[in-house]
Specification:
The structure holds two protein chains of two kinds. By secondary structure, chain A is mainly beta. Chain A is about 0% helix and about 55% strand. Chain B contains no helices and eleven strands. In chain B, the strands form two sheets. In chain B, strands 2, 4, 5, 6, 9, 10 and 11 form a seven-stranded mixed beta sheet that branches. In chain B, strands 1-3-8-7 form a four-stranded antiparallel beta sheet, with no helix packed on it. In chain B, a hairpin with a 2-residue loop joins β7 and β8. The chains are: A mainly beta, B mainly beta. The interface between A and B is medium-sized, with 23 and 27 residues.
Chain lengths: ~110, ~120
């Protein structure tokens, strides 16, 4: 069973807010995890990979909790340009490239 | 500009037509993917080619037929499609990694409408 579940959203936040998205996955053997960003009518683009120890890239922090099969993304000091859909992606085992997307969480940052 | 090029950008076809979607990348990636995305839904994995061999077919109907002529090209042949097949078809590529960290680079997509 290959399932990736995300917060349904939408999240409507003011500029400068901190917002967190969560994602759970069904297969404990999954090895690779990512957050992608998709703007309206555009293709998804990699935001960041998620490493076991957690990782940070500027205002963005990703965490992985293998025991709970849970991934998170924290965005600090939200900008208007952060408005997009954030997609959690999990690589399931079996065959390489078995990359499954969550339903996505829509973020809207308002002035 | 995306490094994965998809053509055509838009395609309208009837249910009896045969058409093809094309995808090309020159990043030396050895894995290529087709995803289908309907409005307000996430991309759904259809096919994966790894080193030019089909490695994943997510139970896709046979009216969709993938082809990987070489490591840079990926086609999706379409025949006898249904209106519900109308969607954005996204091609992606990645460099297979021993650690499993396949980072996808997507093309801009081919928007298909089946009448």
């Amino acid at each position: 069973r290959k399932e990736v579940e995300q917060d349904p959203g939408p999240f409507n936040v003011p500029e400068g807010a901190t917002v967190a998205f969560n994602c759970t996955y069904s297969n404990s053997a999954s090895q690779s995890f990512f957050w992608y960003r998709q703007d309206c009518r555009k293709e998804p683009k990699l935001l960041m990979s998620v490493y076991s120890s957690g990782n940070e890239d500027g205002r963005f922090t990703a965490q992985l909790n293998r025991a709970s099969q849970y991934i998170s993304l924290l965005i600090r000091d939200s900008k208007l340009s952060d408005s997009a859909t954030y997609l959690c992606v999990v690589e399931f085992g079996g065959s390489q490239g078995n990359l499954i997307f969550g339903k996505g969480t829509k973020l809207s940052v308002k002035p | 500009d995306t490094e994965v090029t998809q053509t055509p950008k838009h395609l309208v076809m009837g249910m009896t037509n045969k058409k093809s979607l094309k995808c090309e990348q020159h990043m030396g990636h050895r894995a290529m993917y087709w995803y289908k995305q309907k409005a307000k839904k996430p991309p759904e994995l259809m096919f994966v080619y790894s080193y030019e061999k089909l490695s994943i077919n997510e139970s896709v109907p046979s009216r969709f037929s993938p082809e990987c002529p070489n490591s840079s090209l990926l086609n999706l042949h379409l025949h006898a499609l249904q209106p519900e097949d109308s969607a954005l078809y996204l091609c992606a590529s990645s460099q297979p990694s021993g650690s499993g960290a396949n980072v996808l680079t997507f093309g801009a997509g081919s928007r298909l409408t089946v009448l």
